[in-house]
Amino acid sequence: MNAPVSHAPVGAVRHDWTRNEILALFALPFNDLLFQAHTVHRAHFNPNEVQVSTLCSIKTGACPEDCAYCPQSARYDTGLEREKLMQVEKVVEEARAAKASGATRFCMGAAWRSPKGKDMPYVTQMVQEVKSLGLETCMTLGMLDQDQAKSLADAGLDYYNHNLDTSPEYYGEIITTRTYQDRLDTLANVRSAGMKVCCGGIVGMGEEAGDRAGLLQQLANMADHPESVPINMLVKVEGTPLDQLDDLDPLDFVRTIAVARIMMPESHVRLSAGREEMSDEMQAMTFFAGANSIFYGEKLLTTANPESNKDMQLFSRLGIQPEQRHVHDDDSAVAAQISDALEASHNDQFFYDAAK
Ligand code: SF4
Fold this sequence. Notes:
Layout: H1 19-26, H2 30-44, E1 49-59, H3 88-100, E2 105-110, H4 120-132, E3 136-140, H5 146-155, E4 159-161, H6 168-171, H7 180-192, E5 196-198, E6 201-203, H8 209-220, E7 228-233, H9 250-263, E8 268-271, H10 280-289, E9 291-295, H11 310-318, E10 321-322, H12 331-346
Parallel strand pairs: 1-2, 1-9, 1-10, 2-3, 3-4, 4-5, 6-7, 7-8, 8-9
Helix pairs in contact: 1-8, 2-9, 3-4, 4-5, 5-7, 8-9, 9-10, 11-12
Iron/sulfur cluster is lined by residues 63, 65, 67, 70, 72-73, 111, 142.
């Protein structure tokens, strides 16, 4: 395959990627690709910082959509209990615990096709109250029209997550109940309401390398790159249509992270679903390739002991610090909590400090 044809310097923010250029990146020798991605990463970010968010499912299960990977779809028998919308006070309690554990962003997700009118007062109140704790806020509630996007933005929502999932060509194999254009329309509504965009996709759903290139092309050729780009690795859940697929080659996942980093040099590239199934070594390789955002493991919220948290231990072994925010007055308190937790994890006899 030919080398990339653009004359733009490597690491430049571009919006004119061709499919062949992207495929040429995917086809690079692994070491060349990782070197290029890491060079871009260093030019734009501190390579030893990773942003951490906490995820809270505010309404689980019984979703009318048919996303083939998703255990929350009502169409598949995955044994998931359906839940009602969580009470606002309960969400705020979870957010408080997340903040105490060092998270700087709190993401609230609901398994809806789109929010209904009766839901909006509750979700906007959640945004206001979580934000008042000094956390950044993110929501994923399905499709939004212009008015809904504006209401959320007015409530102070910082980020809205809505993924494209895969390439336009492969999309119909995965979802039939909403179109690619529906998704692009929601993203446009989020942007025009002034919120930041969190948008990415999933690899390992049986797609070809060309589809991974197609997904990244859609993301990188937007007028503004999504500020946050979650790259998920399919979690095969029994009962979903994709549960019998072959495992993805982990190196293909790392390649996807690296190409995303090169194409969207100023975005946070996030390891999302599937991270629990990755070895520490694979996660380390993705951080080198340019991933710089994660969700904290759920266990962090239920344990008082930071030594027992795998994520903290991995950060410590790699000499990685959680990225700090510089927006709210109480940032220093959050930073102190994070460094206390890391200091505690440094003392653990079961791992060493790679930064020393
Ligand atoms: S819209 Fe979201 S919650 Fe519903 S099936 Fe698709 S991925 Fe799952």
